[in-house]
Structure formats: C-alpha cells, structure tokens
C-alpha cells in the first residue's frame, strides 16, 4: 500500500503528549430515537494529543466529537472534559464550551458580521474581554491564518478556504485548550484544502490538543499521534499512524483504507 | 489516430483575449415600444384596449378634479359655483369641506388651543425613532428613545407631570432589580422578581405616590379626555403605539413558540392561534364592552389604551408568525456555532439569530405594520372617531355638508397612502442597506 505523503515538513519539537487527561469518555452510548449511533465508546485523550478519527459516513465519528462539547446529548456513560463532567447542568456545559473550540464542515461564520466582529464576538460577550483587547487578539490570529487584510469584509466576500481559516481563528480567539474539527476540508475545493490543512498543522506544531474528523489521510500521517477508525458507532481500531496505515489489523479498516486511498 | 490529427487537436493559446464591450444598438425607445407593447396582434390589441380604458377613466374623473371648489361654506354653495362656472350638469369636487374641517380630520375634537401638544409629540416621534431607523442620526439621541413613550402619553393626555415620571420610575425600578439580581440568581429568576416588584408598584404604590407628590408640588398640563381624540391623531396614536409594542411582543411569541419548555410553547401557540383566528373587530368589541364586565366596578381603564392593547396583540400574533418564518430559514449551523462558542440562549438570540431572522422578516413585518395602521380605522365600531368614517360621518351630520362622500374618502385615503408608502419605501431601503452589508 502506498503511504500518503504530506509535502510539508512538520516540526515536531513542541508536539508533546503530557500525562494530564484532557478528555475522558467512559462507556458512552447515544441513540437517535431507536437508532443506536454510538455504542460503548471508551476514549481517553491526553493533553497535547492530535487524534484523527476516520471511518465511513454514518459511522458516528461526527456525532462523537459533537458529544464532546454537548452539541449532541449522550444517553449513557460519562464524558469528562477538562475535569468537568457533561450533564444537563447548563453551567458546566457553558464552561466546557468555553474551553473547547470547534470548527465545522460548513464554517458557520456569522454572515451579518464582519470578519473582525465574528472573531471578537465570543471573547467580548462570553469572556468579557475589553473590546480593544479582543480586537488585538483577533488581529493576531488573523495574521496567523494569513488573512489580516480581510478583517473588515463580510464572510460572503471570502473564498471557502479563507472562511474556514477565519472559522479556525474565531475558535482560537477564545483561547481554547482543546480543538475539535468536524470534517473541516470536506466542503472545500481541492486547491483550498491545503491552506486550511497548513493552518491546522501549525496549530498542531504549537502543541494544541486536537480531535479531527477528516478524510485527509496525508494530514493524519503527518500530524496525528493516534488514528481512530470507527464503524457502526464503535471504535474498531486505533493505533499510531505508521502502524495504522501500514499494518491495519481489522478487516473493516483494511477495506476502508483501500477504498479511500484509491489503489 | 495519425500524427497530424493529434497535432491539430492539441492546442495552446498564445494570446489571451481582452474584454470587449457588448454589441451596441440593442436599445432605444422605438425598439422598446415594439418589443413590449406591439410584439404581436394580441399584445397590440391589449395595448390599444388599455389605452382606451385609461383615456375613459381620465376623461371621466379629470373634470371632477379640475372643477374642484375650495372656497365655499356648504355643499350647496359648491354646487352653485360649479354650475355657474361650468354650466348645467357639470360635476366637480367640493374640496371646501377639507379646507373648513381639516383640523377635525387631523386632530378630532382635541382643543384647538392645545394643538401644539400633538404636533410637538409628532415631531418628537422622529427624534425618538431616528436613531433606530437611520445610521446617520447621532447615537446620542438614543437616550431619548426610551423616554419618548412616557413623554408622548403625557403630552397627548396631559395631567400631572408626576405621572410620567413616576411610571418611568417603575420601569427603571424593574430594570434595576433585573440588572442587580441576574448575575446572582440567573436571568429568568431576576426577570420574574423585577416584573413582580414593578407590578406591585404599579398596582398599589404609583397612584397614591403621584397624588401625594401632586399635593406637595403641583405641576402638569391641562388634561384632555380620550373622547376628544379623533381623526389621524387617533389613528397615528394607535398605529405608533401598536407598532412599538407589537414588535417586541411578536419576537417574544416567536421565540416562545420554538421553546423547549412546554408551558411557554403552549401559551405562545394558543395565544397566536387564538388571536389570529378571531376577527379584529371581535377583539375591539372585547376591548370596549367585555373588559368592563371583568374589571372591578369604578375602574377607569381608558378606552384608547384598551383598544391599543388589543390592536397590539393582533399585530403581534401576525408578526410572531412572520418572524418564525425568518427563524426557520436560518441554517442550523448558526445555532451550533453560537453554542460552540459558549454563548448562552439569550446572547445567541440577540447577537446571532435575531439580527439575521429579523432581516429576512422585514418585508413581512412592515406589511403587518401597514395592515395594522389601516386597521386602526376599525375603531369606529367601538364609538371612536377614526379619520375614515367616524369624522366624515360627524361632518355629514352638519346640514351644510350633508351628502358629501368622495372628497373626505380621497383626502383621508391620500394621507394613509403617503404614510404607508413612506413605511414601504423605508423598509425597502433598509433591506438594501442590510443586503449591502453581507454582500
């Protein structure tokens, strides 16, 4: 099997996995009505890990990461994020959401606000940061994603890749300790995927804890320290990327890899 | 495939083409006429019929307008003048009724020496709504907006100067309790306590307080009874009051209908469906007759206020449904992004959801406003003097103007048209402005 290659040289000096637990999921189950979407999920994420979650569509991978910031409710088991257990308690949910950033497939920028306003909204209203300071932070992250000149435009005026980079910057402005990516490049044209992946790699290089649902196996290869393969609402296999790609154990994984790698 | 063929199929452009203007000569008046009015025998026939119809209508009504008489003191005098000038059988408008009675169309039976009060109220209305409607109005004027309703009511109805101050104080009291308690008890609890204290204040404290203050330091304006209101003063008072109150109520109902809380949702649904399902006139009769049975005897609950409340309910039910459409049009991702950033329900609604939903709903909201403003003329059925029927009927009761019909309708209709057309144009310009904002 050909190993997917990523052209960019990744600097691994700051990618350190600590012993501290960032996310702990124990025996978690979720149903949509009668449909059992997530079954007995057990997952521990250490601070500094970069985890890529792969799997066929409908396997529950998006649902899993959406449970981590309670966009979806789980019905059984435990999810503990940053030491806070997710229950119906709205205060806890808000606390978790403040520490967890999320990037969506369709960007979900706020179309009625400028780029700068998109970035400063949550810091000002949720973190109560003074406006000037929030704007300075926003410009800092816009420079990081390399589009500071777009600050006063509206999302509709930007390309898909630029919008997704803005969405990443918007999450970063809340200074999250964990980042969730839900198929961040699936809605993008091929030439825009790279610019978004570059941004994500830079984030990984700085030691951000990341959970990433994606089909970009090159990215997984280059950045992830662990790849999780899901099917039918279960974690079927997890391993380091090298072994995952070169020596997949389960038949489902082998099948999946041969399909998406295309030969 | 031969070599030569392969060579002719492969192709590399060596120069890129510059942009060129579109071909000229596709416009012009004659061309336009031919394409739009005379493009076939059917269209030509329809064009000719249309022109004939317009010609007949104009020839019928134009003399009536042109023969209009302004300087007469009765309809009989009007007719004599028209016959003298244009011969036996000539028709003409008797605008003299408007010249003589315009003040009743505008102010009803408001005391003429106090006309400055409604006029000032009307002018201040623009100061109050300016900061809400236009971006070029200085922001500092926004402090006047919340003060205006109290000032307007006082200017129109008069009475002790302490009344608007103390009623305003009640709202300030409620808002202060909300602000102080909400960080500690949560916004719902704080709102309930604030509203409860404010209601207690309005029911038991404010009356004696005003009387007491008035006894110590009397000041105020001459009182004008609601029965003296009429014409456009009445229509605009009801219309502006209804618009100002129905928009917030409509938003709350629309959000309530989407709520997860069964009680809130149930109340909103029942309210909206009941109010929308009943004719406005029924509600007006409720306002004028039924409420009197339910209220304790001796309470003097002003008829205009009662009607205004029910007109507000009526418009709010429609607006709630219009806004619900706007809310439904937003992609789920907007709610999810707001949630993921840690915004709570009210902040997400205020900053993300409502600005977008209201923008989508502008045409529907303004339609509802226009409809409601015109519906204020229905108050004639509960004995108020609306400008369309109440006032003209009163004028016709005068022997001098008995039998005058078209002129008051045209005059009142024209004023309604001007006001509603202005609202409509404003809403279109607002849509354009917001459109430009998000490209």
Automatic annotation (TrEMBL), chain A:
A molecular function GO annotation: ATP binding
Record-linked Pfam families: ABC_tran
Source taxon at top rank: Bacteria
Coiled-coil residue spans: none
Entry-linked InterPro entries: AAA+_ATPase, ABC_ATPase_HisP-typ, ABC_transporter-like_ATP-bd, ABC_transporter-like_CS, MetN_ABC_transporter-like, P-loop_NTPase
UniProt keyword list: ATP-binding, Nucleotide-binding, Transport
Domain ABC transporter, first and last residues per copy: 23-257
Membership in a protein family: Belongs to the ABC transporter superfamily.
Protein name: Amino acid ABC transporter ATP-binding protein
Annotated organism of origin: Thioclava electrotropha
Lineage: Bacteria, Pseudomonadati, Pseudomonadota, Alphaproteobacteria, Rhodobacterales
């Amino acid at each position: 099997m050909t190993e997917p290659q990523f052209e960019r040289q990744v600097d691994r000096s700051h990618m350190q996995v600590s012993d501290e637990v960032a996310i702990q999921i124990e025996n978690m189950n979720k149903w949509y009505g009668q449909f059992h979407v997530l079954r007995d999920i057990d997952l521990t994420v250490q601070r500094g890990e970069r985890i890529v979650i792969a799997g066929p569509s409908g396997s529950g991978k998006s649902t899993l990461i959406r449970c981590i910031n309670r966009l979806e409710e789980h019905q059984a088991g435990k999810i503990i994020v940053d030491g806070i257990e997710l229950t119906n308690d709205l205060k806890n949910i808000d606390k978790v959401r403040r520490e967890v950033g999320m990037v969506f497939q369709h960007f979900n920028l706020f179309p009625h606000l400028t780029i700068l306003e998109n970035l400063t909204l949550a810091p000002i209203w949720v973190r109560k940061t003074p406006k000037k300071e929030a704007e300075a932070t926003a410009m800092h992250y816009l420079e990081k994603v390399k589009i500071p000149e777009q600050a006063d435009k509206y999302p509709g005026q930007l390309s898909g890749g630029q919008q997704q980079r803005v969405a990443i910057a918007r999450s970063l402005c809340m200074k999250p300790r964990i980042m969730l990516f839900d198929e961040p490049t699936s809605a993008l044209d091929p030439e825009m995927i790279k610019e978004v992946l570059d941004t994500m790699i830079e984030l990984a290089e700085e030691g951000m804890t990341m959970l990433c649902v994606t089909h970009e196996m090159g990215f997984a290869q280059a950045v992830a320290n662990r790849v999780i393969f899901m099917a039918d609402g279960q974690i079927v296999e997890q391993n380091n990327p090298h072994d995952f790609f070169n020596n997949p154990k389960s038949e489902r994984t082998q099948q999946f890899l041969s399909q998406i790698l295309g030969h | 495939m031969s070599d030569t063929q392969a060579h002719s199929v492969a192709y590399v452009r060596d120069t890129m083409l510059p942009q060129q203007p579109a071909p000229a000569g596709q416009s012009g008046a004659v061309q336009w006429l031919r394409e739009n009015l005379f493009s076939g025998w059917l269209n030509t026939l329809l064009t000719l019929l249309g022109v004939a119809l317009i010609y007949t209508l104009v020839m019928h009504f134009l003399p009536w307008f042109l023969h209009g008489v302004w300087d007469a003191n009765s309809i009989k005098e009007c007719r004599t003048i028209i016959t003298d000038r244009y011969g036996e059988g000539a028709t003409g408008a008797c605008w003299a009724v408007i010249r003589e009675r315009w003040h009743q169309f505008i102010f009803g039976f408001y005391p003429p020496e106090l006309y400055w009060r409604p006029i000032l109220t009307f002018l201040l209305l623009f100061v109050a709504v300016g900061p809400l409607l236009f971006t070029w109005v200085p922001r500092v004027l926004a402090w006047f907006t919340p003060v205006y309703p109290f000032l307007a009511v006082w200017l129109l109805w008069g009475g002790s100067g302490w009344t608007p101050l103390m009623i305003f104080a009640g709202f300030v009291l409620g808002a202060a309790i909300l602000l102080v308690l909400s960080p500690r008890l949560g916004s719902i609890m704080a709102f309930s306590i604030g509203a409860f204290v404010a209601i207690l204040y309005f029911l038991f404290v404010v009356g004696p307080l005003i009387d007491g203050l008035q006894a110590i330091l009397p000041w105020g304006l001459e009182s004008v009874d609601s029965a003296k209101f009429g014409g456009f003063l009445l229509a605009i008072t009801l219309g502006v009051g209804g618009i100002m109150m129905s928009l917030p109520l409509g938003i709350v109902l629309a959000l309530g209908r989407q709520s997860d809380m069964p009680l809130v949702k149930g109340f909103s649904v029942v309210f909206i469906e009941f109010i929308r399902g009943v004719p406005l006139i029924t509600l007006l009769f409720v306002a004028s007759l039924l409420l009197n049975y339910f209220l304790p005897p001796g309470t003097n609950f002003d008829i205009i206020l009662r009607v205004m409340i029910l007109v507000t309910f009526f418009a709010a039910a429609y607006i709630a449904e219009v806004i619900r459409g706007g809310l439904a049009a937003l992609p789920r991702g907007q709610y999810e992004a707001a949630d993921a950033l840690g915004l709570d329900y009210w902040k997400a609604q205020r900053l993300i959801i409502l600005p977008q939903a209201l923008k989508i709903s502008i045409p529907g909201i303004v339609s509802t406003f226009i409809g409601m403003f015109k519906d204020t003329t229905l108050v004639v059925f509960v004995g108020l003097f609306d400008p369309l029927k109440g006032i003209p009927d009163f004028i016709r009761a005068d022997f001098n103007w008995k039998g005058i019909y078209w002129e008051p309708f045209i005059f009142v209709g024209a004023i309604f048209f001007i006001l509603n057309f202005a609202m409509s144009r404003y809403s279109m310009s607002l849509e354009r402005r917001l459109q430009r904002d998000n490209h």
